[in-house]
Amino acid sequence: MNSTLDGNQSSRPFCLLAFGYLETVNFCLLEVLIIVFLTVLIISGNIIVIFVFHCAPLLNHHTTSYFIQTMAYADLLVGVSCLVPSLSLLHYPLPVEESLTCQVFGFVVSVLKSVSMASLACISIDRYIAITKPLTYNTVVTPWRLRLCIFLIWLYSTLVFLPSFFDWGKPGYHGDVFHWCAESWHTDPYFTLFIVMMLYAPAALIVCFTYFNIFRICQQHTKEISERQARFSSQSGETGEVQACPDKRYAMVLFRITSVFYILWLPYIIYFLLESSTGRSNRFASFLTTWLAISNSFCNCVIYSLSNSVFQRGLKRLSGAMCTSCASQTIAKDPYTVRNKGPLNGCHV
Question: Does the keyword Ion transport apply (predicted)?
Answer without folding.
Answer: no
